[in-house]
Structures are given as C-alpha cells and as structure tokens.
TrEMBL record, chain A:
<protein>
    <submittedName>
        <fullName>ABC transporter ATP-binding protein</fullName>
    </submittedName>
</protein>
<dbReference type="Pfam" id="PF00005">
    <property type="entry name" value="ABC_tran"/>
</dbReference>
<dbReference type="InterPro" id="IPR027417">
    <property type="entry name" value="P-loop_NTPase"/>
</dbReference>
<keyword id="KW-0067">ATP-binding</keyword>
<keyword id="KW-0547">Nucleotide-binding</keyword>
<dbReference type="InterPro" id="IPR003593">
    <property type="entry name" value="AAA+_ATPase"/>
</dbReference>
<dbReference type="InterPro" id="IPR003439">
    <property type="entry name" value="ABC_transporter-like_ATP-bd"/>
</dbReference>
<dbReference type="GO" id="GO:0005524">
    <property type="term" value="F:ATP binding"/>
</dbReference>
<dbReference type="InterPro" id="IPR017871">
    <property type="entry name" value="ABC_transporter-like_CS"/>
</dbReference>
Automatic annotation (TrEMBL), chain B:
<feature type="domain" description="ABC transmembrane type-1">
    <location>
        <begin position="72"/>
        <end position="252"/>
    </location>
</feature>
<comment type="similarity">
    <text>Belongs to the binding-protein-dependent transport system permease family.</text>
</comment>
<feature type="transmembrane region" description="Helical">
    <location>
        <begin position="76"/>
        <end position="97"/>
    </location>
</feature>
<keyword id="KW-1003">Cell membrane</keyword>
<dbReference type="InterPro" id="IPR035906">
    <property type="entry name" value="MetI-like_sf"/>
</dbReference>
<keyword id="KW-0812">Transmembrane</keyword>
<protein>
    <submittedName>
        <fullName>ABC transporter permease</fullName>
    </submittedName>
</protein>
<dbReference type="GO" id="GO:0005886">
    <property type="term" value="C:plasma membrane"/>
</dbReference>
<feature type="transmembrane region" description="Helical">
    <location>
        <begin position="20"/>
        <end position="39"/>
    </location>
</feature>
C-alpha cells in the first residue's frame, strides 16, 4: 500500500480496504433471470466495523459471496486493496450463516481450525500457537479435542469464528453469525466480536437483520433495500467505544439511531 | 459453559449382538447341529450325509495340514486383493463421476447396464484371458465388488454439502484438496456402506471363482473333495467358509464403525 502515494487523484485509497462499485448480480438467465443485487456501491475502510442490514431475502448473503470471491458478479466489481476480487482472497475470511454446516464433523475442533492453515503452508508450531490463541479469544480452550457435534450451537459458532481468526485475515466477513443463539449468548458473542476487532485489528463486514445488534457493533451501518437490492442509506454510528451492553443501549443516541435504521427498513 | 460433553469418541452404540442375542443365537445353532446329528444317524444314514462328529473329526484333520491353510490363505488373498482394487477403482472413479456432471451423465446408463451382470457370467471370458488362475479370481472379485462402491461413492460425492465446499473454497483449498479433505470424508458414510456390501460378496465370489473356474484356493479344494466323494471333508470345508464369511462381515462392521465414529448414524447422542 506504499505505492498509493504516487496516485494523487485517489488520496483516500490508503484507508479503503474494500470498494464495491456498481455491483450487480443476476441469478439464472433468460425468463428465469432474477436480479438480486442492483448496482451496490459502498466502501469499507481499513479497521472499520461495517454492519449490513436489510430484510430477509434482500441479497445480503449474495453480496458477501461476491465480496469473498465465491460468486462472480454479473457486472460491477468488488475490490480488496484496489484489486478486483475474482477468487477467494487470502486476506479475507468468511464466517458462514450456516455455521453448523461449515464445520467438518469428522475433525476435532482443533483440526477444523488447523486444516486451512496446513493447506496454506503454515508451520506446525505456528499452527499450534495460532489455534491456541484463537480458541482462547473465543474462550473455548477446553474444547479443542472435542468434535463440533459435541458442542452447543453457540460454541460451534465460536469455533467457526476461531477458525477464521486463526487464518489471520485482514478482513473478516460474517454472515448473520449470531442469528440462531439465545439472547444471552448473543450478547456474549457481540462483545467477543468487539474484542476480536480491537485485539486483532481486523476490518469487519458483518451482516445481520437485528437492528440493535447492527447499531451496537458498527462504525457505520449500510442499510439495504430489497427487490432488487440497493444501498438505501449509509449511517455513521458515533457512539463511544468500547461499547457496553447496558450503557450503550441506554444512550439516547443509540435509541435515535436504531429508530432511524428501523424507519429505513420499514419503508422497504 | 457448564456443558458436559461425552469424551469418548465411541459413545455406546446399539450393537447388533446383545448379550441375550448371542445366547439365543448359539442355542439355535446347537439345536440345528443336534437335529443334523440325529438325521444323519437315523433316516439319512444311507445318504452321503456324514454325522456332525465325523465332520468335526475331518475339520480337525484339515486344520492340521499345511495345504489347507495355504489354500485358505490363497482364497482370502484373492478376496482381499479384489476388494482392495475395487475400493481403489470405485472410489477414484466415483469421485470423478460424482464431481463432473458430464462424466456422470454419460456413464450412468453404462453403469446401470453392467451392474446387474453377475461375475459368474463374465467368468468364461476372464478364464479365456487369464486361465484358471488366482488373477482370474481377483478380476472377478474386482468386477463383482466395484459396482456398489462406485455407485455409493458417486451418490456420496453428489450429496456433498455446498456450504462445506464453499467454506473450503473461501479458505483457498484447491480442487484436489477439496476432493481429498472435504468431499471424500463427507461421502464416507456412503462409501463405507458400499464397501460393506461389496465386502460380503468378495469372499463368496473368490470361492465361486475357485469352485467353478478352477482357480487355486479353498473353493477348489471343495470341488476336489466333492468329486472324490470325501463328504465329511467337503462339509468341513463348508463349515470353514461359513466361519470365514462371518468373520469377514464382523470385520467389515468394525471397520464401518471405526471409520464413521463421527457420523450421526454411529455416534451416540446427537447434540443440536
Ligand atoms: N443460487 C441461487 N439461485 C437462484 N436464486 C438465488 C440463489 N441464491 C439466492 N437466491 C435468491 O436471491 C435472493 C437473495 O438471497 P440471499 O440469500 O442473498 O438473501 P439474504 O439477504 O442473505 O437473506 P437472509 O436474511 O434470509 O439470509 C433470494 O430471493 C433468493 O431466493
Ligand atoms: Mg443470508
């Protein structure tokens, strides 16, 4: 990113990690064609925590798949550090919405985490260190020899997060990661997401359909409208950090922000 | 987080043979042997139908000869080699056919046609090519065993979870890494079932290739004793085959459980 200085007409490039420009995605073709994403444009800065909210079926998962190089866009592009994303980038890790299905049931928690590292050529010693660190970050150090199916849903989700952390991405993309856990676990996981971001300094793109969660976690909230999906508004969240489940949520500014997001989503 | 977790890899599983099951089973076996003994001494005394005692004596005699052990070894080698080749061929081909849509479509009909042809039907052709040899037996076992493994592998590969595949792709796994580390273990439940079905046929086909096709082995011994009218030896051999077949199946079951200790069908309770 040192060469950015030589491009004076794009002075902000240095901070921009992800740029999404006129991204369109159409599933199928001919009479079955269904346009899901219709010209999305927004940026994510380095170290920023961006939440994406939108109604169910809007195209949030589709957007993340394009961002993470799993799905080619129909037109427009997504760039990571100025380079168009054409395949899964090494700097990016994705935590799937269906986390139970994204863990390998035949491998222990530890092996689930080390497999991507092994394929990447990380040395055995470093694999062990990273795994320990990641499992400690999600407070699962005691479960490393267990199989995913021996753990509760919330614990499995934390394994998926630990695997992404151990991969040491610069960008962490999460798709409704806390959608199917109880409220208490959810709060714990939200605070975990905050800690992780502070501890590892990653850029986070976080999809959720929970407005409170979005406002609580984000530096900016991208509100999407549906059919077809467009960016409705981008709302900066200037709440004090670190955030606190009780104090932040009692802040009048928080209430005002969540009402605004709610209004935007309700308008459809 | 006070969640207790089963530490055992192999949580207690409903076994096929419970204690009382074994007791009932063995009683039935003893009853059958008794009935045989009575029949052989009474109404069937004149038929070529030796008593159990005579058969056991022949069996003990057989077990003491080196020739018996070498022909049994020969048959087991034929069965296991054929099965191993069938697993290799079936799994490799299955992964290819299962992951390449065009290959799957173009071969489906051929497989459907070849699958029901019993190995004994192609025996004359194989004998013509290889003679009444051990290789002939191996080829027949391979032919008889490859279909269930191939078909199960294809089904398992096509059943692979797209979320798991996408997960692997997002972590930069290459095609070969995905095939070996994700698709294959994911299809393991299907494949192992195929291996179990194939395995129980392997020994039978090996024996038939010797009995009918003349390949060396315990099946050939059976043919010889039958022709020579050595009936108690013949039945002793049959008893040996029954025992070996049972051992084969037990081993296959143990193999299945060991391979699939993580799978919902084998592991104990399912935690959501
Ligand atoms: N592979 C596909 N082929 C065709 N249509 C698809 C495909 N995947 C998704 N869609 C459609 O695209 C639309 C957006 O799906 P997507 O999964 O991106 O929504 P989402 O915003 O993630 O929803 P949710 O909040 O329920 O997870 C849906 O209407 C869906 O039916
Ligand atoms: Mg989704």
């Amino acid at each position: 990113m040192t060469e950015v200085v030589t491009e004076p007409n794009v002075p902000q490039q240095a901070e921009r990690r992800l740029t999404i420009e006129g991204l369109c995605k159409t599933y199928g073709s001919g009479s079955n064609a269904k346009t899901v994403l219709d010209g999305l444009t927004f940026d994510v800065n380095a170290g920023e925590f961006v939440c994406i909210v939108g109604p169910s079926g809007a195209g949030k998962t589709t957007l993340l798949k394009c961002l993470s190089g799993l799905l080619p866009p129909t037109s427009g592009r997504a760039c990571l550090d100025g380079e168009a994303i054409t395949g899964p980038p090494e700097k990016l890790a994705l935590v799937f919405q269906e986390y139970t299905r994204s863990l390998m049931p035949w491998l222990t928690v530890e092996k689930n985490i080390t497999l991507p590292l092994r394929n990447k050529g990380v040395s055995k010693r470093e694999r062990g260190e990273r795994t320990r660190e990641a499992l400690e970050a999600v407070s699962l150090a005691d479960s490393r020899r267990h199989y995913p199916w021996q753990l509760s849903g919330g614990m499995q989700q934390r394994v998926a997060i630990a695997r992404a952390l151990a991969y040491q991405p610069e960008v962490l993309v999460m798709d409704e990661p806390f959608a199917s856990v109880d409220a208490q676990t959810r709060f714990e996981l939200e605070d975990l997401a905050q800690r992780v971001r502070a501890q590892f300094g990653v850029t986070v793109v976080f999809v959720t359909h929970d407005i409170d969660e979005a406002v609580y976690l984000a530096d900016r909230v991208v509100v999407l409208g549906s059919s077809p999906c467009r960016v409705r508004e981008i709302i900066p969240v200037n709440l004090a950090a670190p955030r606190d489940q009780v104090r932040t949520k009692a802040d009048p500014a928080f209430t005002e922000l969540r009402s605004r997001v709610f209004e935007l989503i309700r308008k459809g | 987080m006070a969640i207790t977790v089963t530490r055992d890899r192999m949580a207690p599983v409903a076994t096929r043979w419970t204690g009382s099951g074994v007791a009932v089973g063995s009683t039935a076996v003893v009853a059958c042997l008794l009935a045989w003994e009575l029949a052989a001494r009474g109404p069937l005394a004149d038929a070529p139908f030796p008593t159990v005692v005579e058969i056991v004596r022949s069996l003990l005699g057989l077990l003491a000869t080196g020739a018996f052990w070498s022909s049994l070894g020969q048959t087991l080698t034929t069965a296991l080699m054929g099965l191993a080749l069938a697993i290799g061929a079936g799994v490799v081909l299955g992964v290819l056919l299962g992951s390449v849509e065009f290959a799957y479509r173009s071969t489906r009909l051929i497989i459907e046609i070849l699958k029901p042809i019993p190995p004994i039907v192609i025996m004359p052709l194989v004998i013509l090519l290889l003679g009444p040899s051990a290789e002939m037996g191996v080829v027949l076992v391979l032919y008889g065993c490859v279909w269930p493994i191939l078909i199960q592998t294809v089904a398992g590969v096509r059943d692979a979870d797209p979320v798991l595949i996408d997960t692997a792709r997002s972590f930069g796994f290459g095609t070969a890494q995905r095939a070996v580390q994700i698709v294959l273990p994911g299809a393991a439940a299907f494949i192992v079932t195929g291996v179990r079905i194939a395995g129980s046929a392997a020994f039978v086909i090996a024996v038939v290739s010797e009995l009918v096709g003349g390949a060396p082995g315990i099946g050939h011994e059976l043919f010889v004793t039958q022709n020579a009218g050595l009936y108690s030896e013949m039945y002793a051999l049959v008893a040996v085959m029954g025992g070996v077949g049972l051992g084969f199946n037990t081993a296959l079951h143990a193999f299945e459980k060991w391979m699939l200790h993580w799978h919902p069908s084998v592991r104990g309770e399912v935690t959501a």
